[in-house]
Structure formats: C-alpha cells, structure tokens
Amino acid sequence: MTGGPVTGGGALLEVRDLTVHHGQLRALHQVSLAVAPGEVYAMIGANGAGKSTLLRSIAGLHMPTSGSILLEGQDLVRLRPEKRVAAGIVMVPEGRRLFPSLTVEENLQVGASYARPGPWRIEGVYDLFPWMRDRRGQLAGQLSGGEQQSVAIGRALVANPRVLLLDELSLGLAPAVVRRIYQTLPELLASGLTVLLVEQDVSQALRIASHIHCLLEGQTTLQGPPGDLTAEEIEGAYFGLAGVNGPGGGREAPA
Amino acid sequence: MSWVNAIIQGILIGGLYALFACGLSLMFGVMKVINLAHGDLAVVAAYTALGVITITHVPAVWSFILVVPIFAVLGYVVQRTLIQAALDRSVLTTLLVTFGLSVVIENALLQFASADSHSLDIGPLVSDSIQIGSQISIAWLLLVIFVVAVVVLLGLQYFLSSSRQGRLIRAVADDQEAAQLSGADYRHVFGIAGAIAFGTVALAGLAFGMYSSFDPTIGTDQLLLFAFEAVVIGGLGSLWGTLVGGILLGVVQQIGAQIGPSNQILAGQLVFLLILVIRPQGLTARRSTA
User: What does each C-alpha distance from B45 to B42, B64, B65, B75, B192 come to in angstroms?
Assistant: First the structure.
C-alpha cells in the first residue's frame, strides 16, 4: 500500500487507505483523499464518524494501523507530530487548546518558535485580527471562545504551514462568530495556504469548501466538489440512509 | 533580641530551603513528576563535591563550578531516559520510579561512603560572621547562601518569563499536545526542566554540605521534607511562592527552636499542616480549578 508512485494528479497532501484503531475500536477504515494545492477541503460527517481522528492522524497524534500520509509524495507516517510541523503540516486542534497561562502574544511566539520560512509573522496575525494587537498582553485563558479560536488560528499561521488543518472550528461558538472567523479564509488562501478542515455544520462546509468528503462510521460515503453533489446525496451519505451508498463504496464525482 | 536573631537566622536558612524546593516545584509544574529522590540528589551532589575536591584539589567553595554542570547534564539524561520511560506508562509510575531511585541512592551511598557524616570543609569561612549588637550574629556563609538562592530564583523566574526556552517550558506545562502541534518536542523541553531541577538541587546540596554535616540518609529524612513543605506553604507553580514558603518555614523552625531545641522540625510541620487546612493552594498561588 505504501511507497507506490505518486498518483492523484499533483496533490499536495494525500492520504492512502488509512486505517486507525482506538484500542479495539476501528475509527477509520481505508480512507483515502487527495488535497490539491490552494484547495479548501472539508470533511463532514456525524459525531464519531472519524473526522477528527483523520485530522489528528495527519497531524501525527494518532499512529495509524495501516496506510500512508504523503506530503508532496513524502510519507510522513513515521514522523512525530513536531516534525510534521517542520514539514509544513500544522493543526488548529479541536477546543482551541491555547496555553491558558501564557499571554496572547506569548501563544503566538510559541507558534512561531519552530516556524518555517514564509509570509506569516505575528504582525500579520494582528493585521488579520486587529483586536488582538491591543490585547496581546492578556492571558489567553481569559479570552472568549471566539477570541481564543482566532488566537489558535494565529498560532498555527505563524508557523507558516503549507497545509493548515482546522478541527471543528465552530464548536461551541455563536454562528456570527464562526462566520466572522471563516471570513478570513480567503486571505489565508491568498497567502498560499491549503486548508483541510473538519466541519460539523454541513451548510457552512458547502459554502466555503472546494471539495467535500463525507465520512460515516470511519468510511468514505461520498466525495466531490459541492456543486456536483445534490442535497439528497449529502443527506444520505451523512446519515447512512440505505440505498444511497454502501459502506466503503465511495462515489467519485467527475472532476 | 534573641527572637529577632531567630527570625533573621530563619530568613537566611529559608533561602536555602527555597533553593532546595525550586527544582521540586519545577518538575511537578512542568512534568507532573513528584521526584521523591530530590533530597537524595542534593546529598549525592555533596558527596560528588567531596570526590571532586579530593581529585582536583579545588577549594570546596568553588566545587559548584564542576558539580552543578555535571548534575544539569545528569538531570537531562535521567529525565530523557528513566523518568520519561516512567511517564510514558503513567504519572503514578513516576512516583514509584523516583521512590525506587531514592532507595537505590541511599543504599549505594551507605555501601560506598559508609554511614559516617561528612561536611564540605571551607576552612575558617564557616565561622566568620557579622556581629550586630550583643545578640545578633549573622554567619557570612548563611548570608552568601541566601543571596545565591535569591539570585538563582530571580534568574530562573526571568528565564521562564522572558526567554524563548522558558516560554516553551511554560507552554509545555500548560498543554503538552498543543506544544507538540506548535513544533516543540516536549521530551526535550522536559529534559531542560530536568537539567534545571538537578542543577539547582545540586547547588542547594553543596550549600547544605558547607553549612551543615550530611550523611547518606539525610536527603529523605530532612531535605525532601523541607523542600515539600516550602513548596506547599508557598504554593505550587510560583518561584516567588517557593521563596516565601522557604523563608516562612525557616523562620517558624527557628522560632520553634527558640522555644525549645526539640521543637524546630515540629514547628515547621505544624505550620505546614495549618496551611494545608486553611489555604491548601499555598500562600501565593491563586485558587486553581485543577
């Protein structure tokens, strides 16, 4: 399964036949995906479908049972999480996970500690989220959820990733706050980033993504550009309604 | 006036207690490791100094130049190997492993260095003092130790709050996984914290060896206990708290001794218990949810 020639037509990030277990439980089964440069690739699916497991495996926090994770054809599976940051994969984890006893600025400085060369600096993050500049001395633990999410994105940006992984950005945030955070997405893409995100809110995912990938119980049920997918197809793939797709039978939408 | 003297002596010895305690506090704060061999390490440092002095003939006062770096390296290595291996299993395992380490150290010292007590001979320096009035006498040695302790704690505080590496240590202490996602190898950061802890406890061990006599078992019998008491009284996670805790412990012990020589350690323990009951988070720490 590993070590074959690069397929997927110039994909920046490619996952091949990834299977991940949590103890006895199989969280992901033979999931494959290819993210093209500059794309916004959205994973959707119900709770427990394996979306977060997929992102955490790409970031290196879960060791897969089998399969490979390739960045420009280079297999990352054996790299520790911190080495993947150096390779250009940076994740904004679910629940923000800021360093609560550090200030906003210190959180960003930690993010920049092992930065790759690239366009993002702490000043650039302050330009993206102007409120942050005035409150950079505040402890991150005292910020609101939406503010923390912005700092978490900033902390990932200053590492200058090639692929930014966003795990459940909208979790616990008011819809207006989520919309405001997603409004920064075009600016991130303009800086040359590629985004792979997990989003529970399907309509939100359809609005922002160039490619949708639906998981159900750890398996791919549907994928393709949002324009090629009908609401019925998505609903069926999301909830696993009979007759739409059997387990493992991913439907490739025409490119 | 003898009371004033007791308080002054208590403050000075409290600096030494704080120096003992800061490594213990750091290892708990960053790795969540309670190092039960902490006191024994101080004793090993004192014995190491004896060896270094015998071999190199450096004056005892300067033995720290060699011993502290040796212990810093040792701290990094022990953290990256033994303690990390224990951490990879569970936090409770670290308690067993450091307890085992403590037993091994004490018995090895008994085996190779006998149960006799020793001290680091610094010559006449040990009895030089400043006389203030007829009642108060401040030993130079104790004053120097106090100043060194305060400088080390201040330096450590500055390092943690202002340097890149210090920031990473605090980040890892907050959230190991998030630090990994920012590219930090937390095991290396743990190693650095271990190096600091071992280095400071070695320095404290040398200071103690010059000030008093030591034997293989004093590490757990007294030093570890005092370090724990200083940390708990002051409050975890703050170096200022550790200094305050150390000084308060020192003062209370000296006052206890003033009342009756056998009350010295008892007085310290009573205050320690009192703090645990009325202010379990310690004097300086904010109440945390953890």
Answer: 5, 9, 12, 12, 19
Distance CA A109, CA A115 (A): 10
- Top residue of A82, A83, A136, A162 to mutate, by most chain B CBs within 10 Å, is A82
Whether the CB of A137 is below 8 Å from some CB of chain B: the reply is: no
Q: Is A222 on the interface with B (CB under 8 A)?
A: no
ipTM: 0.89
Q: CA neighbours within 13 Å on the CB side: how many for A204?
A: 23
The residues spanned by each domain of chain A are: 13-239
Min distance A136 CA to chain B CA atoms (Å): 15
CA A192, A197, A203 angle in degrees (round to 5)?
115
* Residues B166, B168: Cα–Cα separation, whole Å: 5
Question: Would the pLDDT of A248 be above 70?
Answer: no
Taken in order A76, A78, A83, A89, the sign of the CA dihedral is positive
* Residue A143 confidence class, pLDDT cut points 50, 70, 90: very high
Is A106–B185 a contact, with Cβ atoms under 8 angstroms apart?
no
Cα distance between residue A109 and residue B164, in whole Å: 8
* Positions in chain B short of pLDDT 50: 288-290
Is A13-239 in CATH node 3.10.50.40?
A: no
The pLDDT, as a whole number, for residue B133 is 82
> Residue B271: what residue type?
V
Which one, of A253, A170, A173, lies nearest residue A205 by Cα?
A: A170
**So what's the pLDDT on residue A29?**
96
pLDDT tens for each residue of B61-119: 899 999 999 999 999 999 999 999 999 999 899 999 999 999 999 999 999 999 999 99
Q: How many CB atoms lie within 10 A of CB B218?
A: 20
